[in-house]
Specification:
Elements: H1 6-29, H2 36-49, E1 53-54, H3 55-60, E2 67-70, E3 73-75, E4 89-98, E5 101-110, H4 116-133, H5 143-155, E6 159-160, E7 166-168, E8 175-180, E9 197-200, E10 203-205, E11 210-213, E12 221-224, E13 229-231, E14 234-239, E15 242-245
Antiparallel strand pairs: 1-4, 2-4, 3-12, 4-5, 6-10, 7-8, 9-14, 10-13, 11-12, 14-15
Length: 250
Amino acid sequence: MVISSDEDLEKLKHIGKICANTIQVMAKAMEPGMTTRELDGIGRRHLEAHGAQSAPEFCYEFPGATCISINEEVAHGVPGDRVIAAGDLINIDVSALKDGYFGDTGASFGLAPVAQKTTRLLRDGKRALTAGLTQVKSGAPFAAIGESVGKFAKKNGYTLIRNLASHGVGLSLHDEPEEIATWPDRREKRLMQDGQVFTIEPFLSFGATFADDADDGTWTLYSHPRALTVQFEHTVVASRNGPIILTHPD
């Protein structure tokens, strides 16, 4: 999507903030012994209270309002009977729509007590996202995002999941431009348009380079090789002055 009016921007900011606040509400509610289904219910109630609808349910009939992935799970974790335990690494991905506009954001959290290594991974996952955000500007190459994130990962001894890409968003959950790499990709020749809306969502890992489908055919994706992985995601608009971040919480 390319923004064409102030109304576009305001409605995208509105749904973006709802998504971001939903993650914060869920993160504050997490505690050992809670199931991912219970945590998802908290997210659902917050979305519905603000007039928003789960995008994965609406678009793909996903069996949950949000995606909750734990430890070896990289993405698209299905809420269910899995019990959250102290020390777990938990990713929450929230995408939703309201008034025809979509927002998409994600963040990873550690449930205390968290190993020092995991704490470092969480810190650096945020830094990897920042490395990508700094490259967003009208007319800039999309390839600069992956180059910047890749440089950060290599310098600090991490790997990147290379089959889960960023993407356009706005009037649909997965919009143009499709599959924006958050790793170095020499084939990427596109430039960012002024007002273009897309996500940046690097998956930083202690060794995984690929996300595998579950053996049971469910939605959940697992790290390959098995390694802790974090994801931090914002929806942004490319502008002449840099990124306009749409998914800031209150």
